Amino acid sequence: MEAKVKQIDISSVIFLFLGMFITVWANTSIKIMLPDIMTEYSVQINWLSWVNNAYSLPYAVLMPFAGKIGDVFGAKRFFLIGMLVLSIGAGLCVVDSAFWMVLAGRLMQGIGAAFVYTNGLILLLETTPEQRRGSVLGWWSSFIMAGAVAGPVFAGFLLEVISWHTVFLVVLFLALANFAGAIFKVKEKTHLSSSRSFDFSGAVTLISGISLLLLALTMGPDWGWFNPFVIAMDVSGILLLYIFYLVEKNVDSPMVSLHLFREKHFSAAMVAGFINNFTVIGTIFVMPIFLQLVRGFRPSEVALVLAPVAFAAAVVGPFGGWISDRLGFFPPIGFGMLLRGLSFLMLSWLSPVSGFIFMLITLFINGVGLGFTASPTLNAAVSVSENGEYGMTAGLYSMVQYIGGAVGVSITSVIVYSRVPSPEALKTMTTSVPGFSHSFVFLAGLCVAGFLVSLAMRTEKSYRTARRKTNAPNA
User: Fold this and answer.
1) Quick one: where is this thing mainly located (predicted)?
2) Whole domain around residue 212: which residue ranges?
3) pTM of structure
């Protein structure tokens, strides 16, 4: 079959990249619109978080389900269905009606995005020659980072010129245009899962368990970690995941192939992906608080300071993927983790008098490290997959990444708020600020842990080697 896919179908790849770009755009652009939405509908500030959560929670928990169903019944149809659902959700947010319409629209966007993102990855992996998979995934990570930057930038422009409804109108038009183009241009191979049965029991227990745990992480900071409802969600979520484990051990076509976790570089990639997103989202959470609380920056200035992370990752991403094609998974992942750890140590020195250029350079270094780690980590995770299983592994990896980000926000928020000095004390400080410095040292330590985890992948020279080992007798 390899002889038939020597060349990459550029037109197909462009529509797949654009679909994933739209999902990230729709997610990141919302944060800058929240004040306008609150004003227009006169809602309390605690409800605003649900405008974001209505998208992000279904997006995270449905990824393994969306990937598995694409494996079994065909990825292209569910990629297209996802684009259509996302379009309808954006359309609901365009209508100037009621706040509940915005929440419903965001919920539909999150559901659609899960199917677009995961099935887009299936199609990308199926139609890319394995020798060039790292490079293509590197460009994929660049599009993701570009969407992360473009979302708030263009949303801010449209907010000033017209209104926040226009942002969703742009998402609607982009999604419909991509839907129409993908019908004709996106190619699909016929390698479906060897079993056409679907593990609905596994899907229900996994989605329910992860949903409850993520809700507990989301509500814990506001309600209190020892609130009875938060504890009940934690206990119920863990119990459902244990039931999921028992179900998966006893079905012929499991939702998640548990044997994959015996592959050391798959397990290492999952842990590295968790750490990667933990530190990324932890940074996005901590830095704006430092810049606004300690330095008195405006939101637009905060966005400018954070932009080098995504910009550097977008530029370096293809190079990190190219290295993984030639040298294996460990060199780019290990180097990227160490580089990010160094940048976090530098950030731990931030003080109320730190220079603007120092912050930009430090965050640029962080973004370079992220560019080296992002696509090779995904490549390592999916490298154990046969045709017909890409969706399951890619969806599981994406969900683990999201959970890493959610845990990152929870833990860094505890570190910051338990140690940060009073506003009066901050005004007189000229050295590193407790709380913030502790958070960055903690993130640096996690990156060192990520480097140690990546050592498990140092024997894997390439995707081809990993596949050969997985398919070997008694593997």
Assistant:
1) membrane
2) 200-254
3) 0.81
